[in-house]
Amino acid sequence: MAAVSLSFKRSDSIAEGMPEALKESRYQMKKCFARYVSKGKRVMKNPQLMEELEKSIDDEAEKAKVMEGFLGYIICSTQEAVVLPPFVAFAVRPHPGIWEYVKVHSVDLSVDGITPCEYLKNKETIYDEKWATDEHALEVDFGALEPSTPLLTLPSSIGKGAQFISRFISAKLNASSESMKPLLDYLLALNHGGQKLMINNTFDTVNKLQTALLLAEVFVSGLPKNTPFQKFEPRFEEWGLEKGWGDTAATVKETLNCLSEVLQAPDPVNLEKFFGRVPSIFNIVILSPHGYFGQADVLGLPDTGGQIVYILDQVKAFEEELLLRIKQQGLTIKPQILVVTRLIPEAKGTKCNQELEPILNTKHSHILRVPFKTETGVVQQWVSRFDVYPYLERYAQDAAAKVVDILQGKPDLIIGNYTDGNLVASLMATKLGVTQGTIAHALEKTKYEDSDVKWKELEPKYHFSCQFTADMIAMNTTDFIITSTYQEIAGSKDRPGQYESHHAFTLPGLCRFVSGIDVFHPKFNIASPGADQSVYFPYTQKQKRLTSLHPAIEELLYSKTDNEEHTGYLEDRKKPIIFSMARLDTVKNITGLVEWYGKNKKLRGLVNLVVVAGFLDPSKSKDREEISEIKKMRSLIEKYQLKGQMRWIAAQTDRVRNGELYRCIADTKGAFVQPALYEAFGLTVIEAMNCGLPTFATNQGGPAEIIVDGVSGFHIDPTDGEEASGKMADFFERCKDASYWNKISTAGLQRIYECYTWKIYATKVLNMGSIYGLWRQLNKEEQLAKEKYLQLFYNLQFRNLAKTVPIATDQAQQEAKPKPVAIPASQPSQNPIRKLLAICTRKHKGGQ
Questions:
Q1: Mean pLDDT across 259-285
Q2: 624 part of a folded domain
Q3: Pairing between strand 480-483 and 111-114?
Q4: pLDDT score of 784
Q5: From which residue to which does the signal peptide run (predicted)?
Q6: pLDDT score for 839
């Protein structure tokens, strides 16, 4: 297929330009659209649309003309089309985040622009025609509640929310003489434990503050730069200035000057600089309820390992940055960070039944475990992340009470993780009136194809009605969203991002989200994490290598004994090793990698395969998907007779040993492979590259940004195993010249050092916490209206959905005898939610 080189401006209209394009190739297009509608009602994905288009045109010259023209561009940019003969409705995405919907008549080729709502109704007709035509079907329009919120305009600006907010706040503060009042109010509210910071209540006007700043700046200019703040603190108190400006005369002067410039002529650079100095964040709560959250013997087994590694490293980075800032602010406050997770009484030898646990290598950070409770008491056993919804409301209440008790007050920032943590963070932040950030890690809607329209089929296993509803509530409640990559938000040229797929979607029979979340919203930010470089360091740093672990790693990789920890063996130890480590589920695609290897004789001749994933025995797992993948793995090993060439190791939870394991793989001149069908970020990619391992990673998601293909690693298509395994085989063929392996290894390390460190991450996120705190203050009225709408949606929709998920005591019965799931929304005309939401929306719009 020829690449389309046309450009498309956001102001251009597909609906306006498409009729002329159809007219130019009318004969071929009538044939094409006849093919589209020939099979009746259906949803067609882009590859099907392109295939039918190419089959409709016999003449190669004419085909090239169409494909390279505006029409080819439109079809190439179409993510899917809904066929309802004689009409075909197209969802066109010419650029990341930009969508247009058009409907074409297959006979006369007339074109009409349609709304997202109309497109979704067309799509629903395929799955639930009665509901699609019900005028009382529940529609949710979150976008209608933020009419004055400024949006970014360029796809290239997506994810730069904090910068955009800084520019917007600067303009707002510049608007009039009274416009500085919100900033003054923000500064007056700064305190810790009731102690005022920076300024006290003597300042009731901006002019008074400016005068005091001028006097103070002249005064400190006459002091030696290293003069401690305590030496001149009494003088500052005379002017109404409190602690928090700095630890020495030099840093105090810089902060005074920074605020003076903001008050005199606000600009984004000075505003961001000032908020990097404001003493506004000391206590942080991080929420991650599901899974076994521990530091030893467990890393979230079986369903959240990467998330826990991320959070533990995040906490260390936050604490280091907070301690540095507090010192530079001239304060002696001890910051506190609480990671709030679930207490699991049946902890299986881990510390997950311990309420409060210090986080290793930190001074002021702890894991706080709060149990899930029901009317009958504490839930004893582990609960899958797909089954947690009935417990979250009570959990949020219990956790909030514990947090306030331990911190002796409200936290300054609350950060949620994954669907459950983000929902609990939303409930807690709303209740306490605290700035909130959220991190998705993975949005399941994009991991399971068509899981929105096919939610009813998947409901008994995954409870996606709860999950997608919770995701929408959290996304729209939070003040800012932290993402690891641009792709996580807005995808790539050809594939929508995780968040972008929530722009407009439908759960037929339940709810139609005509406006879910807009990726041009300024709440989106990119802050890429790193890896703990005390654990993941290059294999070449011989003096730091953990040689005491080598005998255990030798046994793990090469012993010929099968046991609970490993199975299979490596006959030829001289071969390099292809290595992969991930959760054992469908999306992580470890069994896919095993099959690619099994099928590629050339690759098998060049390298061995070692995978670290899940349990080896299905009876050891409680996770439905993992059990299925274990059985699949065993069948693949038998099918391709991989014994002697493959080692399967059970999930490893010792991070320190895992770091040395990566380096031992590098010693063999091997490579790391991340074969996921989709990966939001890819912490293991960062870890492997930190250790100097050349890395092959999925081109679907974050790893495509981390790796520069062919330079610092390689992209692989997880849907084309033959191509992926061929790419690996070619690499190892070239590595017969050792300099090539070294070249890719070195380039990977350079990429990490330039872009992916925890220091950069912590600075960005803490600055977000401060800047979005002021943004909340500037948008109180609009925020309150949206908050009421979200509370209504939560109370009338999510609560009812959560009741359909069996609680832990019922799970054994449910698995023994599956029951149909009753969803309380198939009769929206009998449910007050739609009417109330509609009234709320109209009222906010001004009664339109």
A1: 94
A2: yes
A3: unpaired
A4: 87
A5: none
A6: 45
Q: Residue 717: is it exposed, middle or buried by C-beta count within 10 angstroms (0-12/13-18/19+)?
A: middle
The DSSP symbol for 817 reads: S
Residues 181 and 98 in one domain: no
Question: What span, in angstroms and rounded, lies between the C-alpha atoms of 439 and 578?
Answer: 31
Judge whether 185 and 778 are in contact, CB under 8 Å: no
The token duo for 453 is: 């329209």
| pTM to 2 decimal places | 0.83
Please tell me whether residues 411 and 431 are part of one structural domain: yes
Show the CA angle centred on residue 653, arms to residues 649 and 659, nearest 5°.
85
> Is the pLDDT at 808 greater than 80, yes or no?
no
* Nearest-angstrom CA–CA distance, 306 and 706: 16
Q: How far apart are CA 107 and CA 93, in angstroms?
A: 24
Query: Do residues 611 and 580 make contact, with C-beta atoms less than 8 angstroms apart?
Result: yes
At 833 the pLDDT is 53
Q: Helix or strand or coil: residue 715? A: strand
Same domain, 752 and 773: no
Place of tokens 């602690």: 243
Q: Where are the alpha helices (DSSP H) in 330-433?
A: 392-407, 418-432
Peptide bond into 86 cis (omega under 30): yes
Examine the pLDDT at 827 and tell me if it is beyond 90: no
**For residue 643, what are the domain limits?**
542-756
By CB atoms closer than 10 A (0-12, 13-18, 19+), residue 658 is buried
Q: Which two tokens stand for residue 711?
A: 């330079």
How are strands ordered across the β-sheet holding 283-287?
A: 356-358, 365-371, 336-343, 283-287, 413-417, 435-439, 480-483, 524-526
Measured in degrees and rounded to the nearest 5, phi and psi for residue 654 equal: -90, 100
Beta 695-698 vs 505-507: how paired, if at all? unpaired
Answer yes or no: are the C-beta atoms of 339 and 311 closer than 8 Å: yes
Residue 187 lies in a domain: yes
| Position 129, amino acid | E
- 505, 80 Cβ separation under 8 angstroms: no
Ranges of H-type helices in 410-454:
418-432, 444-447
What is the structure's pLDDT at 439?
97
Residues 750 and 787 in one domain: no
| Residue with tokens 């290239």, as numbered in its chain | 156
How many residues are present in the chain? 848
Range 794-817 average pLDDT: 74
| 258 vs 248: CA distance, rounded Å | 15
User: Contact 691/662 with Cβ under 8 angstroms?
Assistant: yes
CATH code of the domain in which 189 resides? 1.20.120.1230
- Helix orientation angle between 161-173 and 268-275, rounded to the nearest 10 degrees: 110
Residue tagged 């294999």 (tokens): 539
* Residue among 283, 260, 269 at smallest CA distance from 183: 260
